[in-house]
Amino acid sequence: MIDVVSAAWLADRLGGVRVVDVRDGWEFDGIGHLPGAASIPFDEFRSADGDVGMLPGRDVWERLLSNAGVAVDDHVVAYDDTHGVFAARFLVTALLYGHDPEKLHLLDGDFSAWNRERETTSDASDVVETTYEVSAPESTPLVDFETVEAALDDPEAVIVDTRDPEEFAAGHLPGAANLDWRELVDDETRGLKPRDELDAILNDVGVASDRRIILYCNTARRISHTYVVLSHLGYETVEFYEGSLTEWNARDGALVEE
């Protein structure tokens, strides 16, 4: 599973894990970054012309990780400065391209949270290039249009829309529950809310660990964060609709307005 790790956990392991900063390059260079972090800006691994949906493509991904000094057996910790939503997208992409999920970690909090109490630097990181090779994952959470369409009639499935309530009201999949991804993070700490609060929020919308959960948003960024959180909490059956509403609308999938 992809897990969420504390700043203290990471501080004790700097130098022993590969840290990836997915903010814009000017932020990495001009504002500073975690010691030893490699820069892989979100826009560089975000493409609609890749392998599936919004994935960047095998060749692009291998080049980015090789240049950032990531090896296939590295433990990787990703962070951003937006409560982890862009970093989560990086980690899910790594998962879908075969990186061991047990070695993928989201920093709880973000750059701003780390910067409150810990060292950052503007010095260039010493990165030794690798030869990263994509592999097929042992299993994949990806589901396609047809699978999601069939799940509309599955009483065991909970289809979860992770967009904000206004977007949800403007049009959502029939029977979907609305779980705005930001409900799971604390604006003050910039990390996840306490476990009991997370459980209450999830239970309120019917997202239970013994149910089949299918996630979607617009372009698979926001569901990445929710996917990582559910993975961290131990949910076992979480499916990831990569095409999300971009594909759903293009294929005239059914929508409901409120």
From TrEMBL:
Source species of the chain: Haloferax mucosum ATCC BAA-1512
Domain of life: Archaea
Domain Rhodanese: 13-123, 153-257
GO MF annotations, alphabetized: thiosulfate-cyanide sulfurtransferase activity
SMART domains according to UniProt: RHOD
Name under which the protein is recorded: Thiosulfate sulfurtransferase
InterPro entries: Rhodanese-like_dom (IPR001763), Rhodanese-like_dom_sf (IPR036873), Thiosulfate_sulfurtransferase (IPR051126), Thiosulphate_STrfase_CS (IPR001307)
Keyword terms, alphabetized: Repeat, Transferase
Pfam families: Rhodanese
